[in-house]
Input
Amino acid sequence: MQIPTRSLSVLVLVLLAAACGSASNPDSMPAANGGVVQGTVMGGSQNMRVAVPSSSAATTTNSAGGFVLTDVPKGAAALQFSSAGQNATLATAPMVSGEFRRLTVSISGASVTELNEQTETEFEGTVDAIDGMVLTVAGRKVAVTDATTIRKDDAAATFADLVLGTPVEVEGTLNADGGVTATQISIEDRNEAERIAFVGTLTQITGNTLTVGGRTVNVGSATVIVKGDTTLTLADLKVGDRVLVRGAVQADKSVNATRIRVLPREDEDEEMHVAGKVTAVGANSFTIGDTVITTDAQTEFEGNGFQSLADLKVGDFVLAEVLRQADGSLLAKEVRKFAPPPPG
Output
């Protein structure tokens, strides 16, 4: 597997700052295997319909072009964007059960453009095969590099802990071939058969119990709460937050949450990852594939002998934590080199 260095005429699966659109039924009880796609149509295309063909999954974009598409069926491999004078259908990598993708699309007539090096995905599964440093999780090839963080019970773990049958949550870059270059793998302690991932509005907080989209959500000591790349606590949650809940359905239909992701409001920026091969280096910027990323005096460079932009060269593989600026440009907060991902 190789991180793509060229954009294709496909969906741009990226995390963009202004990403919360209003779904047709945003707080409905979703299917246990439904996926979530959070994204933005560049140029602020308001009221554009975003849908999965031949399914009920549909939503519209907000004033900033943002949307959250829920209940995306497992295996769905296309998205359709339509408005007055525009109608574009895009082939995508098939969704896996409970997957969360973050994206941005650029549309011109019937053409939809994807910048795969910006695609981010988050999904669960078990380690079904191990081939060198490549895992198979939920039917996907997952490449583990020296930049991949592996964790178990809030502590560091190693690749040796990823044995066959291990339940994991994978976060990483979704590549053009459908494989994933992992940025983080979390080993989970679970044996429940029914898993669910859904988006809803937080309407009530009572102790460690939340009400999200009409469903009771139980928060335990092992529940991870995040917003972008920032880890939160239960006290940080507020009524009115729109959240993605991932967890196990109990006998009383409540959900024991393993992970809660707070989605950004329309006026908020959010961090994202861009990973891949460096194709250009400038005076105060570098390019991964076709994605230009600027740096400033606060940008941190991590790794032996990697102290500044001057130490970066074309052909290096890097993982950048970036923040989208008001003008749409990407500013690097942190840049790390890593060895080329193993072939899939």
